[in-house]
Amino acid sequence: MEKKPSVMAWLFGAGLCMGLLPDLAAAVCAAGKEEPLSGAVILGIGLVSACACLLCFMRAIYIRFGKDPENKPDWSWYLAGLFPCLLVCLAFLYGSRSVVPVLTAVYAVQKGVFAGVVAALSLAALLLMGVLFFCYLNGCRKTPSARPVRCFFSRIYLGLPVALLLWLAIFAMPCALVLVGRLCGEPGNLLRHAALLFGALAAAAFLNMALALAEKMMTGLTETPEQEERAPRKRLLFPLVSLFLCLFLFFSQNMPQLTGNEAAQLEARLKESLVEYGLFLSAYDINGAAGIAGEAAVWMDEALLAAEEEEKEAANDPAALRKAEKKTKKLQRVCERYEIFRSDGQALAYIDQYKRAGGASEELAEDVLTLSEEYPENLQVQYAAALIGCSLTYDGAEHYDRTAKAVLRWDELYLEERNPEDADRMDFEKNTAQMLMKIYHEEEAAKILEKIADTYEDTETWELLAKCYDRTGRQEEAYELAAERCEAGTDSPYLLYYAALSALKLGKMEESLTYTSKLASCTLECEGEELKECDVWLFELMEFLVLEDSSQYTEFQYPVYEELTEEQNEFIDENPFFRNYLDAAYLAYGADDKRDPSEGFEKIGAVLERKPELASAWYLRGVIASNTDSEKYMEEAVEMYQKAGELNSEIPAVWYAMAREYDRLEEYESGIEACRRALALLPEQDHGSDWYGIHFHCSRLLDALEKEVEK
């Protein structure tokens, strides 16, 4: 037992040779040089360090298992038995670059499967490392056992801890460096070397404990005379094969550095980046994937630029020029193979920029659309262009046509490459149509929706198609579709809205009032999110029926309320909720004298008595109150708007009206806050979706309020 301290010392020396020696040797070799060391020199230092590490490790094993002078160990097994263990370490080092992304992808798909796969692979790795290490130690004895694997599994309660300690020893130094890097940011050489010393000491301790456990396992081995008669060549066959595989694996992974082939070196770096890129993608980390792709694109650009400069310098030397041109072609071929970093990677960078900024800018839209035109066959690029382009809507936008082309290319490529199932295909096509509608290409959207409407019985498809027909002036088709589906029993308030609206625009007053009344009854029965939607649609119809606006944006040019016939009024009276709501809207907007709010309060009060959850009704009550010049009613109007905002915070008109009222009350700071709430819902001035031009008026009001506060 007195030899144990020296065992620990040799194990510590092995750790230092593998961890600290390469760093110190590289520093000595680089002293006085103005350029970095070549790949061959660095690999040579690594090989020398690895050999020194193995010699120290073998010496420790010799001291531990060669204590009996009458039973000298077999030196050939000391040496040859290391190669299987080294092969496992190298396979882990190089193979993990491919295994980790696979595991991460499994994790992204289903966490339960990931846990099972990781547990199984971890156990398999532990068992393999433990068996190999135990067989190596068994071979170091003069009279090894004929069946060491059987002994290992018969004493598995000792074998698994041995394997675990081995893996802890392997990871000791890397973990020490990572820990110092996390704590200190960019540690200097002193801290880094101290971390390596600590890691080497920890590795030596783990290895010493593993050897102690292995020694206990050895007591279960029985010597067999037949083992002495084994042919030495056959005995060394497996270690020699392992040695060959070790050398092949090592040199195949590092051949570009050894040969100085710049194209191969670039490809090796890009391969590693591609694995990391896939790792981040499988973990849904767009920012990480975009960063990796950006770095790879820079490497490619720098390599090609350097090659071009080399060609220019060699212009007067034909031989050097041919060599430089050959090198450039090789680099170009490599860059073409990894064009994904310029296309998909750049698209991800644009998506990440878009998400971080919370929206798109004209510059970003221009960049991503240019990229989509450069790579028209790339699905990821077309998706980025469609996503970003469709989010940027404003009056007079020039990118709509280019964005629509990107959306249609994305639609075509997705269906061709992914070939989705029927349900997924329908959802995808609806999403594509909605994107086209955002940028006012309803004709293309209608063509897509018409295809799936003929195939699938889907309410949302009919709703979107009716909206496309209405916005493109195809009122007859909009009415026929919406009315037909409503009469067929389709439970859709949105189709009721479009049936009423298209009938109104066609001059079919009885039909329009019928469907509006049905929507009013439906609104009384709705709850939750559906109620919010019905509330908005019903209120818009009320505005259409009472307003006569010659604006080119709103097109409220239907003088309906004041021209209702006696029969039509009798029909409206049959639905008291509809009657009161319509009268209240007229008194708020259409009546010549709006100063006396009593009748309007009575009408809208009856509406709210039936359905107090209607945000638009509370807003309308505020409008009625704000029509007067009384400060009392102004304060009441603010309260009504606040109530509407509590029920539905996504109606811009509510916040703008509240800001105007605060302005009248000279509560400018509260008005500024209300303006900002409205503008957050309308980030761009787009009269296509903002009929009243709230963004324009609210922006001007905000400027005025801020000036008042500055005074």
Q: Can you give keywords for this protein?
A:
single chain, 711 residues, mainly alpha
Helix coverage percent: over 70%
Structural category: mainly alpha
Oligomer: single chain
Give the DSSP E fraction (strand runs of 2 or more residues): under 5%
Question: What is the typical, i.e. mean, pLDDT?
Answer: 80
Rg measurement, Å: 39 Å
Q: Which overall shape is indicated by the principal axes computed on the Cα atoms?
A: elongated
Distance between the termini: 89 Å
| Number of helical elements | 32
Instruction: Summarize the main sheet.
Output: none
- Uncertain segments are 223-231
Number of strands: 0
Description:
The protein is mainly alpha-helical and 711 residues long. The protein has 32 helices and no strands. Helix 5 crosses helix 10, helix 14 packs parallel to helix 16 and helix 28 runs antiparallel to helix 29. The relative contact order is 0.04.
Q: What's this, in brief?
A:
The chain starts with a helix and ends with a helix. By secondary structure, it is mainly α.
Secondary structure elements and pairings:
Blueprint: H1 4-19, H2 21-30, H3 39-65, H4 75-80, H5 82-109, H6 111-139, H7 148-154, H8 156-184, H9 189-218, H10 232-259, H11 262-282, H12 286-313, H13 318-337, H14 344-357, H15 362-374, H16 379-391, H17 400-418, H18 422-438, H19 442-453, H20 459-471, H21 475-487, H22 493-505, H23 509-525, H24 528-546, H25 566-573, H26 576-590, H27 598-610, H28 615-626, H29 631-647, H30 652-664, H31 668-681, H32 694-710
